[in-house]
Here is the input.
Amino acid sequence: MENGRRKFSAQEKVGILKQHLLEKMPVSELCEQNRLQPTVFYRWQQEFFENGAVAFERQREHPDARLTRRVSELEGKLTRKNDVLAELMEEHVALKKSLGEI
Here is the structure.
């Protein structure tokens, strides 16, 4: 805290907002207790309400996670195909040897 600023975790921010919204603690008191500027408090409150709908939306899979899962599926499929192809080539070579073609 070189410049006097303090980093608050997301849970700490929600806790401070909760004290105001549910416990009716005055903003001035909260800001004084937490060494917080009122403008910062109101910015948190605005972000909280703007992003609050996310809590009620169904959890969607992140596009990167979906892509990673799909790549893994395709890699597995490719590995199985390569295994089958290798087995078929072995059988082919063995057959050619038994027929005296190699």
Remarks:
- The first helix runs from residue 10 to 21.
